[in-house]
Amino acid sequence: MILSYSSIIASLIQCLLILVLVQLLLKYETKKIVITPQFLYVIGILFFIRLIIPVEFGLSITIPSAKLLPPIYNVLNIQLMTLNTIIITVGKLLISIFLIGAFCKLMLLIKKSILLSHYINSKKVTKKEIINSNDKKVIVRYIKTPKVDSPSIYGIKRPVIFLPNNMAFTDKELQYITLHELTHYYKGDTLLTFLLELITCIYWWNPLLFVFKNQMNKIIELRVDNELLKSFTPTQCIEYVECLLKVKKIQSQTTEKNLAAPSLVNRHQSTFELRSKKILNFKPLRNTNRVLVIVILLLSLGSMFFVIEPYYSNPSVENTTFEVDKQEEAFFIKHDDHTFSLYINGEDKGQLDNIDEFPGGDKLLIYEEDEVK
Prior knowledge:
With 373 residues, the protein is of the alpha/beta class. The chain is built from 11 helices and 12 strands. It has helices at 5-27, 37-52, 69-76, 90-122, 171-186, 189-202, 207-229, 234-251, 269-279, 290-302, 315-318, and strands at residues 61-65, 79-83, 86-89, 126-131, 137-145, 152-154, 160-164, 306-310, 330-334, 340-344, 347-352, 365-368. Helix 2 runs antiparallel to helix 7 and helix 7 (207-229) packs parallel to helix 9 (269-279). The longest helix is centred in the first third of the chain and has 33 residues, at 90-122. The two termini are 61 Å apart.
């Protein structure tokens, strides 16, 4: 595996393709096409993996670029200064800026996580025993706080459910909220959310990542809803949507409060409408169309084995070669010593020992010396 400018550019192009693909699939979620949230989740993970591993694989197929990449490489290789024996180029300067930015973002994330942990430890925690979707008794921890505008779950080992302090819930509503948030936890969404925050520290300069995070937030909510639908009755589905609507109404009247945690409702109206429609269908999606699965996986995985490299022609070779236009009259004359002279438009361009040395030479006419005298 090789890490280079080309591999990073290729990974960004591949991530863009996956991003567009996921966006199209999310768009068709409103149509009568069977695309499960679980499958969308898998495609999103492919994007995530490609960002983590932006390298060129040994089996990669190289696509030469003569126009796009060479100018980019020329700019990256511009020498700005020399420090002792270290040559500072535009590329090295950009890498330094990216690394410094990533370090600062990482420090802020660590600080934020530590402060949030201290905050959780300082607050009054309410514990309650409930029956989860697997009919097992679990102890759930709740904290009422002004730091969230929707019920959210935080924590990888010992999760806690945050409840907005400006919202009051009935026992039934709290049960739906708890089932939703615990499903996030059991499905690994709290870990995924943390990893997304971590990779955002590294790719803070990449706008694709922020689009991807919005997509994944929608996907994980659809996935959780789909899981709950497997055990909900139609009546429970209606009550569940009413609970979502109640949170959405109160949320719209408050200022946005960001917490890196899976929540019950986000602020995107389109996401809320899509979730409501899916839930009120009363039927969970269980399988994605197999043909669609194969095509999408081939597009997503196949793109990972292509890398674009800049193509440069050798100036010294260019000065000693020429190109034959298809409209020009060209032919060979074979001499007694078995060498060949190349004529283009009646002008002798030089001799060759072997016509195979000339590209396309096997397609030109060959005359004997006495035929042209």
